[in-house]
Amino acid sequence: ETAPPLLSVDNIEVVYNDVILVLRGLSLKVPKGQIVALLGSNGAGKSTTLKAISGLLRTEDGEITRGDVTFMGERINGIEPDRIVRRGIFQVMEGRRIIADMTCLENLRLGAYTRRDNEVKSDIERVYEYFPRLKERTGLAGYLSGGEQQMLAIGRAIMSRPKLILMDEPSMGLSPLLVKEVFSIIKKLNQDLGVTILLVEQNARVALSVADYGYIMEQGKIVLDGSAEMLATNEDVKEFYLGQG
Ligand code: ATP
Hints:
GO terms for molecular function: ATP binding; ATP hydrolysis activity; branched-chain amino acid transmembrane transporter activity. By secondary structure, the protein is an alpha/beta fold.
């Protein structure tokens, strides 16, 4: 039989402030070693899905009121975000959320806060191999360009040595050239380090170009899923999510 997925989200319902129902029975699976894309239009509930997995929902008065989130065979809904990080799930937030008045290096060290091993230093070198530009920037992170901040946010995720990275809109605010660069690094991370990635994107085309599998959601539910190859050639997907060109 096939191995159980690294992450399994089963039929979850999420409510904000006890009243606003945003996820309405959403299910998805993320197999170990894959890049899975979660696509859909504005307000479909993509960010909410990531926050339900990372536990960050709690910080916004959101709650999983039905269903289960299972990671490595254990139910994790309702657990505090920092305990979820310790289990190996790291979320790269939308808008990057780096610490502006700390340096790059300090931001990277912060990513390793849950670790007790002695390899933090060599991991910093590894992040610099992926993102040479970050090594050259010795000033405060707040002065980095948008693209560099996104790289730093991903670098910080690497520093926590996660099993699963949740990425929220890595293309946001980046020029087409930088989008290409960031996504090729995401693919490389997945291939070199074997990190599993669940990726939320508005830019369906670029997401499907690196993903193995994709889900499309609308109004709090999955409406279509399949291999990235299949989705990229599906007529409905082309019409509604891939736009022209
Ligand atoms: P976007 O790409 O615009 O971020 P999304 O698919 O990620 O869209 P979510 O951010 O998950 O969608 O939002 C889904 C719905 O939940 C929206 O209607 C939004 O207004 C609502 N929502 C999100 N966060 C909260 C919150 N903290 N409190 C109340 N409602 C919220």
